[in-house]
Amino acid sequence: MNYKQQLYPWVIYRHLPNLQRLTVARFRRRNDAEEHLRIIKRLLPQAEFARSFEVNSQQLTNCAR
């Protein structure tokens, strides 16, 4: 995970066939991600989306110390 991705930990993914996913957008705040997800679901009601919080393994290691 690069530095820019660390600044935007909230991610919206679109589920694709064969267990693939497409990153739709990244956000700094959960509220922003939730609002964007609501709008996307209205525009594309047939598509499946997921919101997640990404933490890289190095950050977890530093927290455990």
Q: What does the main sheet amount to? A: 3 strands, antiparallel
Write out the strand line-up for the largest beta sheet, numbering strands in chain order: 2-1-3
Uncertain stretches:
none
**What is the H/E string?**
HEEHEH
Helix content: 40-55%
The total of helices stands at 3
Number of strands: 3
Strand content: 25-35%
Radius of gyration: 13 Å
- Tally of individual domains: 1
Descriptive report:
The protein has 65 residues and is of the alpha+beta class. 42% of the residues lie in helices and 31% in strands. The chain has one domain (3-64). It has a three-stranded antiparallel beta sheet, covered by helices on one side.
Secondary structure topology:
Blueprint: H1 3-7, E1 10-16, E2 20-27, H2 30-43, E3 49-53, H3 57-64
Antiparallel strand pairs: 1-2, 1-3
Features of the shown structure:
31% strand; alpha+beta; three-stranded antiparallel β-sheet; 65 residues
Please give a quick description of this structure.
42% of the residues lie in helices and 31% in strands.
